[in-house]
């Protein structure tokens, strides 16, 4: 099963980048797409870009259950398409074609500015799940983490 998880930027020990993103995305400052079958999570990480990573989600203040959204109604084929999209983003990063868009993560809701060659967390997670959840027809992919969480809360719960 695939699950979108929101990170609470107000939690103890949150990094500076999360504090900055709180200006536009409070309290969720980061999202991950967790793949239960592999135990890995996909997102775009500050300073890195799109990547798969092993993350511990046991800290309830950092990864609150209220901001966890299992993608229960997906078929195996839909999950496979999502995983292939994640892998494609990672390949683009490994080829040096995309990275993390810090300016866009903070500025997308303040100034509308973005770096078209780079992606932030909610942007890349939205990209890989939107078609399978039929969200791409109605939404703009330039949304901060809390907006993505609000959309998933209304669609999935």
What is this entry, summarized?
The chain is an alpha+beta fold and 157 residues long. The protein has helices at residues 16-21, 76-94, 102-107, 121-129, 145-156; strands at 2-8, 28-35, 40-45, 49-53, 68-70.
Rg, please?
14 Å
Strand % is 15-25%
Cα(first) to Cα(last) distance is: 16 Å
pLDDT averaged residue by residue: 84
User: Would you identify the regions where 5 or more consecutive residues have pLDDT less than 50?
Assistant: none
Helix- and strand-based class?
alpha+beta
Number of strands: 5
| Main sheet: strands, sense, barrel | 5 strands, antiparallel
Question: What does this 3D model show about the protein?
Answer:
The protein has five helices and five strands; from the N terminus they run E-H-E-E-E-E-H-H-H-H. It has helices at 16-21, 76-94, 102-107, 121-129, 145-156; strands at residues 2-8, 28-35, 40-45, 49-53, 68-70. A hairpin with a 3-residue loop joins strand 3 (40-45) and strand 4 (49-53). Helix 2 crosses helix 4. The longest helix is centred in the middle third of the chain and has 19 residues, at 76-94.
């Amino acid at each position: 099963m695939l699950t979108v998880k929101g990170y609470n930027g107000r939690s103890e020990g949150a990094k500076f980048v999360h504090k900055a993103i709180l200006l536009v995305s409070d309290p969720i400052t980061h999202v991950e797409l967790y793949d239960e079958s592999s135990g890995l999570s996909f997102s775009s990480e500050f300073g890195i870009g799109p990547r798969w990573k092993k993350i511990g989600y046991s800290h309830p203040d950092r990864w609150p259950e209220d901001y966890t959204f299992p993608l229960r109604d997906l078929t195996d084929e839909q999950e496979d398409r999502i995983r292939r999209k994640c892998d494609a983003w990672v390949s683009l990063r490994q080829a040096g074609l995309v990275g993390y868009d810090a300016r866009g993560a903070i500025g997308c809701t303040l100034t509308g500015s973005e770096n078209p060659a780079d992606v932030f967390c909610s942007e890349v997670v939205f990209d890989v799940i939107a078609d399978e959840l039929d969200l791409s027809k109605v939404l703009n992919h330039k949304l901060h983490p809390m907006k993505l969480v609000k959309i998933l809360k209304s669609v999935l719960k």
